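stage 2 :: seqdesign
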């Protein structure tokens, strides 16, 4: 079975959100291991940290987001995660950790597959819905949440994407 390439729509949408919401460094990318393409080059590199649970291309820090060290709290102006939440055993806790990593007013950009085949690494646990993604972001404390569906149609999307802000001033 060949490698699946990162969907071009993901990188295009992330680039649009960076511009529209004025993403600022430093940036934390959660799930940064370059399996099938990377969004890293879209962001300022000053202070960029790619975090993943295994070492490899695109990874600066090997850490499970569920065990994020305290030294990463309130350190980043932008947190991004693409097509990763389905691989995390407790995505609600992962979203809370991403919130904790942001400085007040910080930007969250995230994509989550919905209608996509099962793909192992390390396992494939979850699919997000628009209401579910919105709930996890609200539960973590985010505000100014915008959730989008991508591909397919509104009732049968391929992806669920969101941007949000951490409470407080930048």
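stage 2 :: out
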């Amino acid at each position: 079975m060949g490698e699946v390439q990162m969907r071009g729509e993901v990188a295009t949408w992330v680039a649009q959100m960076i511009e529209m919401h004025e993403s600022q460094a430093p940036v934390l990318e959660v799930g940064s291991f370059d399996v099938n393409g990377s969004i890293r080059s879209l962001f300022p590199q000053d202070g960029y940290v790619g975090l993943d649970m295994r070492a490899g291309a695109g990874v600066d820090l090997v850490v499970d987001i569920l065990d994020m060290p305290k030294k990463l709290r309130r350190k980043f102006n932008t947190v991004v995660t693409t097509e990763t939440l389905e691989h995390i055993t407790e995505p609600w806790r992962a979203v809370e950790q991403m919130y904790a990593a942001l400085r007040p007013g910080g930007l969250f950009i995230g994509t989550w597959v919905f209608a996509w085949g099962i793909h192992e690494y390390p396992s494939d646990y979850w699919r997000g819905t628009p209401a579910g993604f919105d709930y996890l972001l609200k539960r973590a404390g985010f505000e100014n949440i915008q959730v989008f569906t991508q591909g397919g149609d509104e009732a049968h999307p391929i992806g669920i994407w969101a941007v949000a802000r951490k409470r407080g001033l930048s």
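stage 3 :: structure notes
- The chain is about 20% helix and 25% strand.
- The beta strands are 27-30, 49-52, 61-62, 76-82, 102-113, 143-150, 159-165.
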